Fold this sequence. Notes:
Layout: E1 6-14, E2 23-24, E3 36-43, H1 50-63, E4 71-75, H2 83-96, E5 102-108, H3 110-114, H4 117-126, E6 129-133, E7 135-136, E8 139-140, H5 144-148, E9 158-163, H6 172-176, E10 180-186, E11 192-195
Amino acid sequence: MDRAKAVYLLWGELRRNDPSQIIPLRRSVPTGEAEEIWLVVRAERLDWGDGAYEQLLDQAQRWNAQGTLTGVQVDFDSSTGGLSGYAGFLSNIRARLPRDLKLSATGLMDWPANASEADLAAMRAALDEIVIQTYQVTTTIPDYADYLAHTQRLRMPYRVALVEGGDWTPPSSLARDPDFKGYVVFLLRGGAAEAG
């Protein structure tokens, strides 16, 4: 793989049993020469306490001390029917983030295929990009092309996430979509994802 243009690094997890804090998984501030560096937080629930928001913002400020952090990505598997609430949560994070940082979220392939226009509009208002996942755990979802045929409904920048070593044939529609910004490869070791 060519050198990654963007790197998504898993920093911490907000776990189901405690909404008050994010458990750090990475202690050091990243170094490197990627064009984009994203701080990723995995969330198992959306009713965060103030302490969790403060942790996230403090860590983003620490990573961005030299102006090299692109933004924050939230990894939460919202159901399509729950997108309205998820968009509200993301808008809350957006309001707290410094203006120079972007906001990204991982997304399910079902969103562009089946979400309401109102919910997609709410996601557009909250986010700078969506990274659509085409896999579960370590396996590519077999009918990904059927779902990705609807990505034009997103009407916002998006990337497509692939799992390292997974089966993949690029749908021709992606190359024609001006909102498609490339691929993210989820690395099975190391808690990182790289976009080429």
